[in-house]
Automatic annotation (TrEMBL):
Recorded GO MF terms: phosphoribosylanthranilate isomerase activity
Gene this chain is encoded by: trpF
Source superkingdom: Bacteria
Catalytic reactions of this protein: N-(5-phospho-beta-D-ribosyl)anthranilate = 1-(2-carboxyphenylamino)-1-deoxy-D-ribulose 5-phosphate
Every N-(5'phosphoribosyl) anthranilate isomerase (PRAI) domain range: 4-187
UniProt organism field: Paucilactobacillus nenjiangensis
Keyword Isomerase recorded: yes
Family named by the database record: Belongs to the TrpF family.
UniProt name for this protein: N-(5'-phosphoribosyl)anthranilate isomerase
GO biological process, one term: L-tryptophan biosynthetic process
Isomerase listed as a keyword: yes
InterPro entries tied to this protein: Aldolase_TIM, PRAI_dom, RibuloseP-bd_barrel, TrpF_fam
UniProt-listed Enzyme Commission number(s): 5.3.1.24
Chain intervals for the UniProt region annotation (Disordered): 169-192
Length: 192
């Protein structure tokens, strides 16, 4: 069994699909991406999302002004950082009462002290599978991301035994979130 995070929600109907499937976390992308949403959109989505689903703000280079806004309005409770590791930034974000997920690549050493660690590829959100053979388990709860789908997630859980599995492209059809794929992915994660 692994917990699930569905990332890159862009429409109110995506929020409805996530409420129905009920993963543990949902992600809003603030990084430069076709999935990027604004802070007011994320605030609106948060009000429609079930209370017990944790929300995550996804950044490459953290924008502290946006992060302060997100913390103040309680729009997210976790910040996911794909960029360079920097302990000063991690500490600043934690001081706002938010948790931090540091993304690293297979084979890379963790040099910061985040709350969670995520293994993802060099091109986040591209649906590319990562090299599972180079994953070392840190002390923190670990997320596996990169190219997961409803079809391969059970195999990934069996191989790596991550605490969380994370998906964006793998639950889309024609670049939009697909409610049936979101349900199947979440079920497979919870049963895996
Ligand atoms: O989804 C994006 O566009 C994105 C942009 C910038 C940083 C991260 C992004 N997404 C993250 O990528 C992983 C894996 O995505 P995929 O399943 O391989 O498509 C996921 O954690 C998203 O949070």
């Amino acid at each position: 069994m692994a917990k699930a995070k569905i990332c890159g929600l862009m429409r109110l109907e995506d929020i409805e699909a996530v409420n129905n499937a009920h993963p543990e976390m949902a992600g809003f992308v603030f990084a430069d991406s076709r999935r990027q949403i604004s802070v007011p959109t994320a605030q609106n989505f948060r009000t429609h999302l079930d209370n017990d689903i944790k929300t995550v703000g996804v950044f490459v280079e953290p924008d502290m002004k946006k992060i302060e806004q997100l913390a103040k309005e309680k729009t997210v409770s976790v910040i996911q950082i794909h960029g360079k590791q920097n302990q000063e930034t991690v500490t600043k974000i934690q001081a706002l009462g938010l948790q931090v997920t540091q993304v690293i690549h297979p084979g890379e050493e963790l040099i910061t002290k985040p709350d969670y660690v995520m293994y993802d590829g060099q091109n986040p959100g591209s649906g590319q599978l990562i090299n599972w053979t180079q994953i070392k388990k840190p002390d923190q709860p670990v997320f596996l991301a990169g190219g997961l789908t409803p079809e391969n997630v059970a195999k990934a859980i069996q191989a790596i035994q991550p605490d969380f599995v994370d998906v964006s492209s793998g639950v889309e059809t024609d670049q939009q979130k697909d409610s049936a794929k979101i349900s199947k992915f979440t079920q497979e994660a919870h049963n895996g």
